């Protein structure tokens, strides 16, 4: 499981990790039923306190993304992803605005930004098929 945290971001590390795990589930890089690293293992990989890692898994479990099985570990939930349309729209609105602002800050035109998005969409679709 590849998660990269931005330790200089204003977004809390816990929320960064939750969002990235959700992306891995939605993109099917984490498959239903797949076991996630243990709390301690993920804490070590991300250089976080185990309590923070436990909070990450608890939030994901509350949202139905993962299932915590005492003594067995944490697993990606089976079935459709439990994200509501409002949640998805809100998350995409925030991220697309940040992406647009960043692109404009770099001096890119709308067309250049759109071409980058189209390229990423193509790559994601290909990775989901393999």
Q: Could you name the key traits of this structure?
A:
mainly alpha; Arc Repressor Mutant, subunit A; 58% helix; 6% strand
Count of distinct structural domains: 2
What about the largest sheet?
A: 2 strands, antiparallel
Radius of gyration: 16 Å
The CATH superfamily of the largest domain bears the name Winged helix-like DNA-binding domain superfamily/Winged helix DNA-binding domain
By CATH, the architecture of the largest domain is named: Orthogonal Bundle
How would you sum up this structure, described in words?
With 130 residues, the protein is mainly alpha-helical. The protein has two domains: 13-76, Winged helix-like DNA-binding domain superfamily/Winged helix DNA-binding domain (Arc Repressor Mutant, subunit A, Orthogonal Bundle); 85-129. Helix content is 58%, strand content 6%. It contains five helices and two strands; from the N terminus they run αααββαα. The chain has helices at residues 13-26, 39-46, 50-62, 85-105, 110-129; strands at 66-69, 73-76. Strands 1-2 form a two-stranded antiparallel sheet. A hairpin with a 3-residue loop joins β1 and β2. α1 (13-26) packs across α3 (50-62) and α2 (39-46) crosses α3 (50-62). The protein is globular. The chain starts with 12 loop residues before the first helix and ends with a helix. 14% of the residues are buried. The mean pLDDT is 88.
